[in-house]
Amino acid sequence: MNKRLASILAEVFHIRETEIHPKLTKADVGAWDSLKQMDLVVVLERSYGIELSIPDILRMGSVSAIMDVLKEKGVNLGD
How far is CA 28 from CA 8, 23, 42, 56, in A? Predict the structure, then answer.
């Protein structure tokens, strides 16, 4: 798991980094609602210097999907 991404997710969703893994989904995180999804989008765009489209945002329902979207945007997650 990429340390930088884990840190971002932990901060946005108010969970421990140790709880974050690729199979983690919206259903697993009580705080992961539509407002937190938009918070996540803003933080990801600023942190990685990317722009996320509506289809990208809608796809990001799990950590693995977030990683896939970031990789498609050219973000090197080091894995």
Answer: 17, 9, 21, 20
Helices (H) and strands (E) in the chain, counts: 4, 0
User: If DSSP codes are grouped into helix, strand and coil, which group holds residue 60?
Assistant: coil
pLDDT at 78: 84
| CATH code where residue 13 lies | 1.10.1200.10
pLDDT per residue as tens digits for the range 55-64? 999 999 999 9
Q: What is the extent of the structural domain holding 41?
A: 3-72
pLDDT digits over 1-27, tens only? 899 999 999 999 999 999 999 999 999
Predicted pLDDT at 79: 60
